[in-house]
Design a protein that fits this description.
It is a single chain. This protein has 312 residues and is α+β, with helices and mostly antiparallel strands. It folds into two domains: 151 residues, YVTN repeat-like/Quinoprotein amine dehydrogenase (Methylamine Dehydrogenase, Chain H); 125 residues, P-loop containing nucleotide triphosphate hydrolases (Rossmann fold, 3-Layer(aba) Sandwich), CATH 3.40.50.300. 17% of the residues lie in helices and 38% in strands. The strands form seven sheets. Strands 9, 10, 11, 12 and 13 form a five-stranded antiparallel β-sheet that branches. A hairpin with a 4-residue loop joins strand 11 and strand 12. The longest helix has 18 residues. The model has no long low-confidence stretch (mean pLDDT 76).
């Protein structure tokens, strides 16, 4: 049993054992290459033609794009009925012509009409604002092996490269302020090696402004969003943050802590702070206190080991 209409797109799994196909009959199918037989169930998350399909780098997920302007994330496990679909807010009836997973499998990129959208695989939500792509429809899209660039090809006969970090800045700033947009601008685009970078941010309900025109707390949170965006693109084993929350009010400290917890799954953070809300986010606290002999002592405390004996 195959599809009931034309097959528009096919892709091999990373290990070469399976094949995925997307059809004009709006279904996605998995195939066992060795036996040339269907594997698992027919996936029916779209209402119109499936135009593009691909596997994640680890082979655990499939992403499919459709003419109905939706993107579906599928689990390759036959026992997992996961079908997370989300609709791209593109122009009316704009089809998803091309999709691609980031190398780490955490993000997907889709070309919808002439716009590039980035999506979060785990939450099935858009990552910030779309990237204005080509003057005409985008036909193909791909991530670089390191995940730092996105390439797109369009009907306008051009190939364009995009910095994935720009999309991450948009996501981080939107998470920090509960919305808004941001972009990175070269101060001297003709001399990239010597050029500086300016951050232009548009906070919710505000006009677009340069970083220097924002308040102290807004500048701090925007700068933190940039650092966190770069960490998402290229995680480091550990990161030291020294009093970065000093200028933030209580609500913004809460947003900062949420971003910190999210990134701490890949990077170990060493945070120097006097803010009690930031301290409560930590797994381990180190402090300096005066000992019995009037000498400074380092005291450490693991918050997950606190019991009622420590509480007053």
């Amino acid at each position: 049993m195959g599809h009931k209409d034309n097959v528009n797109s096919v892709a091999f799994s990373p290990d070469g054992r399976y094949l995925v196909s997307g059809s004009r009959d709006s279904t996605v199918r998995l195939w066992d290459v060795g036996s040339s037989t269907p594997w698992g169930r027919r996936l029916t998350g779209h209402s119109k033609d499936v135009t593009s399909v691909t596997f994640s780098a680890d082979g655990k997920f499939i992403v499919s794009g459709s003419k109905d302007n939706t993107l579906c994330i599928w689990s390759t496990s036959p026992n997992d009925a996961m079908s997370e679909a989300f609709e791209w807010p593109g122009k009316p009836n704009a089809r998803v012509r091309s999709v691609a997973f980031s190398p780490d499998g955490k993000s997907v990129a889709a070309g919808t009409g002439n716009i590039i959208y980035l999506g979060d695989v785990t939450t099935s939500t858009l990552l910030g604002s779309p990237i204005a792509g080509h003057p005409e429809d985008i036909y193909s899209i791909a991530f670089s092996p390191d995940g730092e660039r996105i390439a797109s090809g369009g009907k306008d006969k051009t190939l364009r490269l995009w910095d994935a970090a720009t999309g991450r800045v948009i996501r981080s700033l939107s998470s920090s302020f509960g919305g808004g947009e941001a972009r990175l601008v070269l101060t001297d685009p003709d001399n990239i090696n010597q050029s500086g970078i300016e951050i232009e941010a548009k906070l919710p309900g505000r006009r677009e402004q340069e970083l220097s025109l924002l308040s102290g707390g807004e500048r701090s949170l925007t700068s933190v969003a940039l650092v966190f965006a770069l960490l998402r693109v290229s995680p480091t084993p550990f990161c030291v943050l020294d009093e970065v929350d000093a200028a933030l009010d209580e609500s913004n400290v809460g947003r900062f802590c949420e971003l910190l917890k999210d990134l701490s799954r890949e990077t170990q953070f060493i945070v120097i702070t006097h803010n009690r809300n930031t301290v409560e986010t930590a797994d381990v606290i180190y402090g300096i206190t005066m000992g019995k002999e009037s000498s400074s002592q380092v005291v450490s405390l693991r918050l997950d080991e606190i019991n009622k004996d420590y509480l007053i």
